[in-house]
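Q: What would this chain look like folded?
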Amino acid sequence: MKLGVFLPVSGRAASRKTLMQAAQQAEALGYDSVWAADRLVIPWKIETTYPYSKEATFIVPPDRPFFDTLTCLAFLAGCTEKIQLGMSVMVLPYRHPLHWARIATTLDQLSTGRLILGVGVGWMEEEFAAMNAPFKERGKVSDEQLKLLKQLWTEEHITFHGEYYNVDDIAFNPKPYQKPRLPIWVGGEGKPAQRRAGQYGDAWFPYFVRITPEELARRFENVRAEAKKAGRNPEEVQLACCLPVELTQTDGPPIADYLKGNVEQVSEALQKFIDIGVVHIGLQFMMPHYPERQEQIERFAKETLPALKEYSLRKKNASTGSA
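A: My prediction, written as structure tokens:
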């Protein structure tokens, strides 16, 4: 299993210096990836329920910076050498696919194949209104973009006629650095996201999982069932996720749906995700102040990361019969 950390792309800590330091620190500490959240507009008044916090309200105030995801990752591609660069997740339906696909493909070329393209349909109705995009049709729009994307990345003469997008005999070059394509990780937790991951994704990538690993594995079976329905090999779709983490100095209560506890508790909880076959986890350390967050990222890397990688390797070797 690979492990990554989220970047400070929003809030008071967001700056050129902190972004560069965060990515270079993660690479030096042995993390496999860095992750950037996505947001284009933050309305002053948001009535849409935010599904990823206990308070059900969006966590970044509108008067704080929120950098563009693709731009940040392109910048960091030039500041790092080997760490993977992930989006968690890019909201497809209020962007034009020819535009964002060009940027993503360029980024993959310039980073020599380090981009992970996390995609989703979005959740904030007010943001869609500001972008003049149809909120209720966002799932259908996203599906059509993913169909078009396959042609953009594999064909030389591209003709596509859909409900939302129409192109006639266009070229799209360069193709992605990674072959046969950029990895598409489909975010979202519900049945439509599971279907989309099964049909189009290389991985299902739910965010802020607050269910047991066993329940996550059960829902992942739905994803692979959808892949089979779509005529794909279900084994081609992998399981990844994002998890909130908070390290404490002393024992916390038994971990249920939130990774909060000392190093040993968090490590044991993460081993359960390895056991069910999760291949990559993006860790979002939940300390509100960035210096404390940096300390936790470093502490986790030094005290937990090596043991987790060793555990993951043992599980892999046991499953393949390797010595």
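The mean pLDDT is 93.
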